[in-house]
Amino acid sequence: MPVGHSINSGRILVLTLRRLSCVLLVGVCLAVGGQAIAEVEQAEAVIHAFTSREQVESDVVKISDKKKHTILFAMGIALLIFIITTAVLGISMVLFGKQVFVAHMIFAGFSVFLAIAHAVVAIVWFFPF
């Protein structure tokens, strides 16, 4: 065999392998792309099943605005009582030297908890207006 002939056959072999690998790569990409599209369609079908239903509120969940305002008002009154009690206990510790630190911290914790709960309830009920 002449030297030029083996080089040409080597080039032909390399070009053939490149073409074959490109064809295989395109086939794999199409197969994977088809699976991805099918998975997306299945996911959309599942989500649609949950979101297509009408949201019907039961009588237990429905609360009138007046009742909501009454509940928030009661929470606000309790919050004010807790804050005033916390302040009185703190002042009695500082000015009169009474040992009421634990009670002061308990009422401070209740005040913070009720303040956060009051804010969350107000935002959930009235934020969208």
What labels describe this entry?
mainly alpha, 2 domains, 3 helices
What layout of secondary structure does this protein have?
Blueprint: H1 3-51, H2 65-96, H3 101-126
Word description of this protein:
With 129 residues, this protein is mainly α. It is built from three helices and no strands. The chain has helices at residues 3-51, 65-96, 101-126. The mean pLDDT is 80.
Quick summary of this structure?
The protein has 129 residues and is an all-alpha fold. It has two domains: 1-53; 65-126. It has three helices and no strands.
Q: Write down the secondary-structure element order.
A: HHH
- Radius of gyration, in Å, reads 37 Å
Number of helices: 3
Shape: elongated
Beta-strand content estimate: under 5%
Whole-number average pLDDT? 80
The total strand number stands at 0
Question: How many domains is the backbone divided into?
Answer: 2
Give the N-terminus to C-terminus distance in angstroms.
90 Å
* Helix residue percentage: over 70%
* Biggest beta sheet summary: none
Overall structural class, as computed from helix and strand content, comes to mainly alpha
Question: Which stretches are low in confidence, meaning pLDDT under 50 for 5 or more residues running?
Answer: none
